[in-house]
Amino acid sequence: MDTISNIKVSNNEGGDLNWDLQQWATFRINADFDLSGKNVKAGDSTVVTVPDALMITSSSFPIRDLNTNEVIANAKVNPDNKSITITYTDYVEKHSDTSGSFFFYARIDFKKHPQKGEVPVEITINNETKFAGKVSFTGVGDGNPRLLTKTSWVNAGDQREIQYTISVNRTKQNIKNATLEDHLQFTNASYVKDSIKIIKGKFSFDAGEWVFSDRVDVTDQHKITISEDGRSFVIDLGDVTENDQYRIAYNVRLNYDPADGEVLRNEATLKGIGIETKI
After folding, report:
1. Which among 64, 68, 188, 220 is least surrounded, fewest beta carbons within 10 Å?
2. Residue 123 pLDDT
């Protein structure tokens, strides 16, 4: 059932999209629909599919009448086949002249389309293709390699445990007498004993994401000093060459249940002769 009368791209706020999209940036695809004269029945559906160079980032959502807030249709997102199936409710049988609009969010599927340039947004509605405009993409680039980066997340099975990873030397530099220091900036917490692991490997930026391969555990080859209060440590990495790249992983144990959204800061510093960088 083709009920879509118009479809176009916009920025996330509904205005003109007049800039280049970066790797993770989203934008809107806006659609108008008109059921007049279509004899739409409850259970009928319309399938909206985005091109292979895009991916849908919205979750499934209801499409409502703006005046009554009643549900006209339910839009089910299938991210795997890049489609949205719009299934109409019995509202359409009682209001045959219904029209309105909806939108969803999308981004460039940079694994399918890593290159810089314009991407035509051709939306397939059932078996008919409609042109919604075009977007410009910066391309995935080189991943912005940095000497030191850090990520963290709360353990899914234990909210009192935070897991950290620090990536060292994606920039492939030579560093004499390198040390990595880490300091917890919050109290009521300490490092989990024996959780600090030093992994040596190779970083590469592949299909828009950083990959760490050829991993070897070298924890026992480096001196690790933990402070008496358990809230900082120093790792002696020695002389780091352009071929030496590391990922350091460790866990931190809280002595309390963190509040939702609570920011738990720690500071990592990489030092060497003529070099000092913090994150």
Report:
1. 220
2. 96
CA atoms of 74 and 78, how far apart (whole Å): 13
CATH 2.60.40.1290 in the chain is located at 148-278
Nearest to 15 by CA among 27, 6, 4: 27
Using CA atoms, how far apart are residues 146 and 167, in angstroms rounded to an integer?
A: 9
Report the pLDDT value the prediction gives residue 83, as an integer from 0 to 100.
97
Per-residue model confidence (pLDDT) at position 1: 67
Do residues 7 and 30 make contact, with C-beta atoms less than 8 angstroms apart? yes
In the chain, which segments carry CATH 2.60.40.1280?
A: 4-137
Rounded distance between C-alpha atoms, residue 180 and residue 269, angstroms:
6
The 10s digit of each residue's pLDDT in 161-214 is: 999 999 999 999 999 999 999 999 888 888 988 999 999 999 998 877 899 999
Number of neighbouring beta carbons within 10 Å of residue 225: 11
Q: Which residues of the chain fall short of a pLDDT of 70?
A: 1
Q: Considering the domain 4-137 in this protein, what is its CATH number?
A: 2.60.40.1280
Please name the CATH architecture into which domain 148-278 falls: Sandwich (2.60)
Pairwise CA distance, residues 38 & 200, whole Å = 63
CA 212 – CA 231 distance, rounded (Å)? 28
d(CA 198, CA 218): 6
